Amino acid sequence: MSAFPGIDVIQYEGPESDNPLAFRWYNPDEVVAGRSMREHLRFSVVYWHTFRGTGSDPFGAGTMICPWDDGSDSVENACNRARAAFELFEKLQAPYYAFHDRDVAPEGGTLAESHRNFDAVAKVLQEEQQRSGVKLLWGTANMFSHPRFMHGAATSCNADVFAYAASQVKKCLEVTKELGGENYVFWGGREGYQTLYNTNMRRELDHLAKFFHMAIDYAKSIGFSGQFLIEPKPKEPTKHQYDSDAAACLNFLRSYDLLDSFKLNIEANHATLAGHTMMHELDYAGMQGALGSIDANTGDLLLGWDTDQFPTDYYLTTQTMLVILKHGGLGSGGVNFDAKVRRESFEPLDLFYAHIGGMDAFAKGLKVAAAILEENALGRLVEERYASWDSGIGAKIEAGEVGFAELEQYMLEKGEVAANASGRQELLEAIVNRYIDRA
User: Fold this and answer.
1) How far is the C-alpha of 11 from the C-alpha of 39, rounded, in Å?
2) Radius of gyration over alpha carbons of the chain, in Å?
3) pTM for the full model?
4) pLDDT tens digits along 29-70
5) What are phi and psi of 244, to 5 degrees?
6) Annotated active-site positions, please?
7) Are 55 and 348 in contact (CB under 8 A)?
């Protein structure tokens, strides 16, 4: 029985189409900058918002209509939900999906029961992957929802919680490997603090590093070769999270000899919560070889929390794809829609409208970014801006051929700096507008 009756596989109809159940920009086989859109974007649908989100908020109960879900925590219901999920993935032509362990399988009364539940649903996920060809982009463990994680997981003040979290990640790594997952993500939802009055920050960070080293060792022991990813976020639910932004993550990884084993999964909404842009976070990770994947969403700039809205802004997707293309793509990562429909958009049909809009926005952004880079439309002005470093004293500084004494002598002889050139920001923004208009 179909979970989404009356909806066919979404097809590409082109920019002139006014069919809301068709792609206007996402043409999976269209080649852009040497690769198909499917290969560039590697779209992934998330299990948690799309199939476990209820539409509830702190002020009201859930609103979502989910005919495939009987509302129980039974394994049977979880298996039925998995089959409905794959129908959506296939009809969207999404090549990947992603999950938390507790998204796909109910938590049991004991750890052993939780493991059995996970295995039972994983069997159905494996069957559906083989039937449909949809693959697992990444798995991760939910170590933030249950009350046992109130003080964190790997950074908890309770050593038993650390041990429980390790057991949960061990199992999730095994299932992710079994399902052919290409990455494994750590999001430290409660790895942080509410107040330093009761926190030994150094000890907690040491424990977090030990946890990651244990995960690396275990992954090697079972032959899991997927990429480990950390997802930065500054706050919510804790006041301060240790993985607050790309810079904090990379500093932590470098300090604890973990940099060779991890890359970053950058989320747009998390970037703005950290006081950055998505471009900033992507470029900071990319310039250090640590850009692994992205969570594709956006936040409402008038609200101060993680609203996880679907990305439909061509400027956001163009900026995102400019940096991703600049750094050579996402490798084993993908464009993962960690986004949810609004509480008021409660019908199953809205899941299609939301994902189609996001996929089209990223396809448009890809085309615009590729054209800008191919024609070096922004690059020429950037090169001109830094021209003083390409010869003369600038080249000597970059080559390490001079120090303070030589630079002082240079300026004493010259007397004053050369005239600065305009930054041309308004022109650059107008150029981007022009490319968006013509794509």
Assistant:
1) 17
2) 24
3) 0.96
4) 999 999 999 999 999 999 999 999 999 998 999 999 999 999
5) -65, -35
6) 100, 103
7) no
